[in-house]
Amino acid sequence: MTQPLSINKELPLKVNVTENGNFHLISMGTPAEQWVPFLYINHRESFFGLLAQIEENALIATPVEIMELFSGKSHPFISFTGANTDSENWLQTFRQAASIWLTPELWSQLKLDGDTIETTASIDENGKILLANAVKQKLYQAGLTMEDVPSLVPFFEQGGWPIKSQATHPNLLVALRLSEPEALDDTWLLETVVRGKKSSVYWTPAFRKKTSPIKDALPDKWNEFSAYIKETQTKIFSLISSIDQLNTETFFSATLSDEEVRIFLRDDLVKLQALGFEIVLPTWLKAVKETKMRVKSIAKTANTYKTAAGLNEILKFDWSFSLNGQEISSEDFQQLVNENRSYIQAGNEWFRIDAAWMHEIRELMKKSEDENWTVKELLFREIPEEIALILDDDEQSNEDPLFQFELQKSLQSLMEQLSEKKGFPEVQVSPNLLTSLRPYQQLGLEWLVFMRNEQFGACLADDMGLGKTIQLISYLLHVHEKQEQSAPSLIICPTSVLGNWQKELAKFAPSLNVQTHYGNARTKEIDQTADIVLTTFGTAMQDIESLQEIVWSSITLDEAQNIKNMHTKQSRAIRKLTGAHHIALTGTPVENRLSELWSIFDFIHKGYLGSFRKFQENYIVPIERDDSDTTKHKLRVKIQPFLMRRTKQDPELLLNLPEKLEQREYCALTTEQAALYESLIQETVSKLDTLSGFEKKGLILKMLSKLKQLCNHPALYLKEPFDDADDMMERSEKLARIVTLAGEIAARGEQCLIFTQYIGMGHLLQHCLTELYEIDAPFLTGSMPKNQRDHLVEAFQAKEFPVFLLSLKAGGTGLNLTAASHVLHADRWWNPAVENQATDRAYRIGQTNFVHVHKFITIGTIEEKIDKLLIEKQALSEELIHSSQWITEMSDADLQDLLTLSI
Asked: Would you say the C-alpha torsion 93, 95, 99, 100 has a positive or negative sign?
């Protein structure tokens, strides 16, 4: 008899408790990235596991997370069991404690004694400790102190536990508003107000309706919400200790004296906000509410007699504190921390201070006294995010930082070296580098070597066209010729630029032994005698185990923004690779893409920006939601020492830049393109012997056109309709590279021209740019009427659109398009003069921008071979090289060599 199909699965977990009370869960047979989403299937707080803390293939869960995970609905098909007896006992403990967590009876089974919580629940001792720790942690997360808890117990027992944002009506929001006195001798007004979800204006009944029942006081359109308003108002006032009586049938409205307001702010406000109720305060009072203690620490080197300081110098600190301009002694500060005070009075004003933040400051002080910190370690300490390393003199700063480090002069000069990127030790360029470096590129080399020597990761984010590749190649030559270690350096790049790296390394550093680890023919073993191992992001993910076995001399990510999705397997795996030096290359301004920035820094300096959750709270939300200039400044200061970015507009670079830079961008054929290419050549060559000279020339020219279209995209050669843009990009690395590059140029606020010989290629580029980047790129062809052409040229010059597509012949002459700073040649013309004329649409009199010309060439194809021949034939007559006829005059052997695919 056949067994019924079972879709249920058990996953054994090994559970250990850590010293700080968190839990370490690991499944020996399954990667954490695979099983954690099953456990977090209903955990909204972590975005269903996306923000779960995973370290070395193990889940690190807090007591609160354990309660939330094991009290919610479990996965319908996946169940978790203990990998051993102890682990099974822990899982039983989790379930027992979690069964009490959500019930109102929890608070009748808790005993409060000062700062401690005990439980009388009928569970084992481990469960009691877990439950008590989870309750304390949940209260702390909400900003509540143990002093607040007794007054909250009735609220918790009536359904207010566990603490969460209060359920809101989809159409209406109920809030409590405190309005300041209109005159000095007037009173404050505390009242219930409502607003529609799509409105920013709060509504309250007119004075004559204040005493009317809620339903009668409401406008007709809101009558149906009267019960909800009554229920929410009752909940709010059950938490306010300063209000004795409440008529639940009417809108609440009461006048308060200054003293009553102080009591409300001191005793009730934090509780209400912590429990998710909206409280509307006067703007100035809101600012006062958020005021924090000012802390200042002067860092000095222990050896004060030295005039110069190094990164490894031991520091000592002098601490001072102030609030609202009034100095506070260290003793008073310690007392405030010990008493967990949230509100204190300075002069005639009351201030709310963040007790948790002050606890962190005290811990920081203790660490600085107990440990011998160096300047280098100071940069990497997990200091609260409000703390910024202020290098400028305080008198010259418009901001009053909450936490300020002052450095003695010898330390300031050292930190300026890191932040200003100057004064690095000179590095001799290797004689094996077959090109010369421009001054800013020499600086880039010296910076990379300095960062390596000081064991700092580095993000080189120079503008496109400034030579990040050549700076890295000169660095790699320096490192491997010094023979610091025998391990190779690893370069990981997108597939679309792999060919470029192969060509550039062979051209500028032929002395380096380069292994390309890519393609179906590759071996899993890494050649550790190589100087450089070159691979792609996709291949690195597939062979991650082999790559993780090696401690690399250096690991470089080119176009490092490819690891921006920090939760993908690829990003997580690559960020776990180990090297003596981690380098990220990117041409995008990373400080404008915050999730990308976090991923890149997590690669070059694991943990420097904290967990993504903390980074999101401290930087992403304030910057992206509130556009906080203060937070932007803090982040810039924090990342500045490890980021070098020069743009083509930098005055220091202008004198060192050519007016025009021509660059060949090499792209490989996909497997599909290579197969079609070989088939077309074999089919054509087999016919040549049977044709006359004239027919032979015609067939060769026809084949050349097909090959060039095939190099662009197989769909053009096969005359297929266009599919989804992502699918189309996967079939041609050249298309992917052009579209991605154009998107990056547009994102930086620059403009580009894209020339192609083929109408189909122009339409394909339009399709992909629109679908992937929402860029509407006009396409100027020979059939376009003159008035429409003139209008498009005028609009492009006025910067109305960033990308302009042009057919090579129609757009190659007679147009003035100097707004473009980039020119992209999607396919090559046999006549270099035609290409040059097209380039000159941007590079001509009136052009004030540096012009970057990109010529796209598919490796090993007729495009690359023709490119080489054109360079060699520059000395020959113009008649010979300015047409494609010379190709038809080749001997059969030369033609065979020209057409053979070399990959």
From this structure: positive
